[in-house]
Amino acid sequence: MTTGASEVRDRPDPLDEDLGWMLGIVFRGYVRAAEHALTDFPGGPRGYQVLTAAITAPARNQGAIAEELGIDRTVLTYVIDDLEGPGYVARRADPADRRSRLVDVTDAGRTAWEQRRRALRQVESHLLGALAPAESATLRALLQRVACSAQAVDPLRDLCEVVAQVRPDPAPPAPGRGGSGSASEPGRRAPAARARRRHSD
Question: Which residue ranges does the record assign to the HTH marR-type domain (predicted)?
Answer without folding.
Answer: 16-148
